[in-house]
Design brief:
single chain, Rossmann fold, alpha/beta
Amino acid sequence: MARRSKSSHRWMQRHLHDEYVQRAQREGYRSRAAYKLLEIQEKDRILRSGQVVVDLGAAPGGWSQVAAQLVGKRGEVFALDILEMAPLAGVTFLQGDFREEAVLGRLMDLLAGRAVDLVISDMAPNISGVAAVDQPRAMYLCELALDFAAEVLRPGGILVTKVFQGEGFDDYLRAVRAAFDRVAARKPRASRPRSRELYLVASGFKSG
């Protein structure tokens, strides 16, 4: 117990002194993750005024904040997470587990047949620390995000999804490349250096 407390204390100290945590507090973003999406936006210009966007794994809302600002009043942002998320202007939020068919059905009802321009997914499983358990869980969420994107994206649409390097990554990358014209891997500066996370930016969805 004492060891865990020391580890938690060290993590909290790093977190509080983190450049992006401090920036988020100053600039009014709900999480440091906002800067990951802002950096991807700077490179890839994925968000534009008037778009319909779906944000998977949205809580506490950093990515939804960025998306809502950039799509503006003519756009729409739909956000989903298993955790609660405080309301955000311009964002329709649904709480539920994306792995459940009933929750996916409710999200589809909210979309009401809209053609989606962009799906963004920062989903990750609860980490156990056991790679043989965590990696398959993470890749399963990635596969669900890809399946969902294939169902709702307009032709030419974009998927941005967090992935973790490890078992299953190469097969997943092949599947994404088969479904989109262009795929780029990004490691934003706001990603913690020791993290195995990458973001795939897949554009030019090939419908049908």
